[in-house]
Design goal:
The complex is a heterodimer of chains A (284) and B (337). Chain A is of the alpha/beta class and 284 residues long. Chain A is built from seven helices and eleven strands. The longest helix of chain A is centred in the N-terminal third of the chain and has 17 residues. Chain B has a single domain, classed as Copper homeostasis (CutC) domain (TIM Barrel), CATH 3.20.20. Classes of the chains: A alpha/beta (284), B alpha/beta (337). Chains A and B meet through helix 3, helix 4, helix 5, helix 7 and strand 7 of A and helix 4, helix 5, helix 6, helix 7 and helix 8 of B.
């Protein structure tokens, strides 16, 4: 039996209703293998791509309360880049999760610094997010052909290294995130037998940028596209996509969502689902 | 606060380049190395150091030995990059004898990006100093605490390309006993190295250079006002121009610069306590690297205003327009004057 979690990259609030998550789950599993899911529903809130998208303390408090009322477990997602300024904000959120969320609530770690911060909060459970699973995510079909002889190699993660397993155990990490990669993944090669594994799909980050396109929307030309811009969350209003570059072989188009460049892989064919404890459905 | 002198760190591929680069002003070097044993198993495409091409790497033990000796004969240091995205157990098995053989040649540091390799280096009792690569992703002091808690000994940290200077300053203040290196020139990638999972090979153009120029469609999540509609399209056009203009063919006869320049930020980088300034371009021609080093040296040694720096830049690269500097088109640290 699998766990199910929903990770909406935007408009997270509207998914706080259990029936809305169940609806998505049902529409998803009709197209997939004979999967059975546990009753517990999880909602990932926060952002893997930008610290400006971390929820405010008030928003997170509201999510925790509504989640408890509607039997939806809230997992806080932290971004891949947490600056000293961002870490002060994250400390507040971790404190809140520790005080108000259910015991063993999860925090999804995408910056190693956040894992260290989390050590001070024993009630919370660290889970390694997919941004720290740095397996190659080739979306270029021609490049993939060249890489064909090495495909199986690219499917093996750092969990095959026992030193990583020991380290993650010491840091009390309970699970590790994989993406549903086009070239396949081999979670069975993991040396971390105690560690649970989560599979994210169908949106897969191929890269992240620090120069935010969206934060520059209302700025003069010489003030655009620099790192550390403050913003009004313009990325919540619109996103951009390509039309042709990766169309060959019907592989994947690219989307720029906030500071992430995402490809899409809808198929779970060939993915060893039995090796995963949780499916994390990512939508935007 | 008195300005400190920053070291200039430059890539090197051949031992014949060293004298010229030292004469131009290089204080320390870094290099990539793909030995035959690695190539036999993985070719060039499974990168040992994120440059999946021959020309950016030293290819034999004999050559790397000569290179290290030659650098040391000038009294300079050389660091070797092992900054692939990640190494799994199969790759680590192949890497172990390579690192051991290199230890005997006494390089001055291994630049490492993967937590697993850092942990293994500790387990293998590697004596060569470890340097935390920008591709590891150090964005806060907690990450350094985490590495310390794992017993990983390291002296230097290379900051990510795009960490704002104010944030760098806070991390440096928290860690006064460490050396910090910052990017300065060339290879202005739009993406963040620590979380870029794409390949540097591409028959259609490398991912970093080609992907952004293809982002041409805008989708609104809800109906936008006409003003929002117009501004977002205008913004995407600027973005497209900003990114693609910098990724035109380089090394052209008119003297076009490689993308990425932090010359105007040198003073600030000195003042916040940066120890060394990185010049990228392991695959750039030697003439181009020497030109860049001379330029950096001049700015480091003189007390030039931003206007003087722009003038100097335009003299060095005659095809460049000062107006593009005004717009920050080539800035590594845009907005810093």
């Amino acid at each position: 039996m699998k766990q199910f979690a929903l990770f909406p990259l935007f408009e997270q609030e509207k998914y706080l209703f259990r029936n809305r998550i169940e609806g998505i789950l049902k529409s998803m599993i009709t197209n997939q293998n004979n999967l059975t899911f546990s009753k517990e529903m999880r909602l990932y809130v926060g952002s893997e791509s930008c610290e400006n998208l971390m929820p405010s303390r008030e928003t997170l408090a509201k999510y925790i309360r509504l989640g408890q009322e509607r039997s939806v477990s809230i997992c806080l997602v932290t971004p891949f880049m947490i600056t000293p300024t961002g870490s002060a904000r994250l400390s507040v959120l971790l404190g809140l999760m520790n005080d108000r969320a259910a015991k063993k609530s999860e925090v999804i770690i995408n910056d190693w610094g956040a894992l260290e911060m989390l050590q001070k909060y024993p009630r919370l459970v660290p889970v390694i997010g997919r941004a720290l699973n740095k397996m190659r995510r080739s979306v270029n079909p021609l490049a993939e052909t060249k890489l064909l002889p090495y495909r199986s190699l690219f499917g093996i993660s750092i969990l095959s290294n026992p030193a990583i397993c020991k380290f993650l155990k010491e840091k009390k990490v309970k699970a590790f995130g994989y993406d549903n990669l086009w070239h396949g993944i081999a979670p069975s090669k993991s040396a971390c037998h105690d560690l649970k594994t989560h599979l994210y799909f169908p949106l897969i980050p191929v890269s992240f940028t620090s120069n935010c396109l969206f934060a520059s929307t209302n700025r003069e030309e010489n003030d655009k596209f620099r790192c550390g811009l403050s913003c009004k969350r313009e990325c919540q209003e619109y996103y951009v996509a390509n039309s042709s570059y990766f169309d060959a072989n019907n592989k994947s188009n690219l989307l720029m969502l906030s500071r992430g460049i995402y490809g899409c892989n809808n198929s779970l064919e060939g993915i060893p689902l039995k090796d995963f404890d949780r499916l994390v459905y990512v939508l935007h | 606060m008195a300005e400190r002198y920053c070291l200039i760190t430059s890539p090197v591929v051949h031992k014949e380049e060293i004298a010229t680069l030292v004469e131009a002003g290089v204080d320390e070097f870094y290099a990539g190395f793909i030995p035959g044993s690695w190539r036999a198993k993985f070719g060039y495409l499974v990168s040992i150091n994120r440059r999946e091409i021959k020309t950016a790497n030293v290819l034999s033990f004999q050559d790397i030995r000569s290179l290290i000796r030659q650098v040391h004969s000038f009294g300079k240091k050389i660091f070797l990059a092992f900054n692939a995205c990640t190494y799994n157990d199969i790759q680590l098995k192949a890497l172990k004898p390579i690192l051991f053989s290199l230890e005997d040649l006494q390089p001055d540091g291994f630049i490492i990006s993967d937590l697993g390799l850092l942990l293994m280096a500790k387990e293998w009792l590697i004596r060569t100093p470890l340097i935390i690569s920008s591709d590891f992703g150090v964005y806060n002091s907690f990450t350094l605490e985490l590495l310390e808690s794992a017993g990983i000994a390291f002296k230097r940290v290379i900051f990510s390309r795009y960490l704002p200077l104010g944030e760098m300053k806070r991390i440096i203040s928290d860690n006064p006993n460490r050396e910090f290196e910052a990017f300065l020139m060339n290879d202005r990638c739009p993406y963040e190295g620590s979380v870029c999972y794409a390949h540097h090979i591409a028959p259609l153009g490398t991912f970093c250079r080609a992907s952004l120029s293809q982002l041409k469609k805008i989708f609104f999540r809800k109906k936008a006002s006409y003003q929002e509609f117009e501004r977002s399209h205008e913004n995407l056009e600027h973005f497209w121009r900003h990114e693609t203009m910098m990724h035109q063919p380089i090394n052209d006869p008119c003297g076009r610069p490689h993308p990425g320049c932090g010359l105007c930020s040198i003073k600030q980088l000195q003042n916040i306590g940066i120890h060394s300034l990185k010049i990228c371009g392991r695959d750039h021609q030697i003439e181009s690297r020497v030109k860049t080093v001379r330029l950096v040296k001049k700015v480091l040694s003189g007390r030039l205003s931003s206007e003087e720096i722009v003038r100097l830049y335009c003299e060095t690269y005659p095809s460049w327009y000062p107006e593009l500097c005004e717009k920050g088109y080539n800035c590594t640290y845009k907005g810093v004057k």
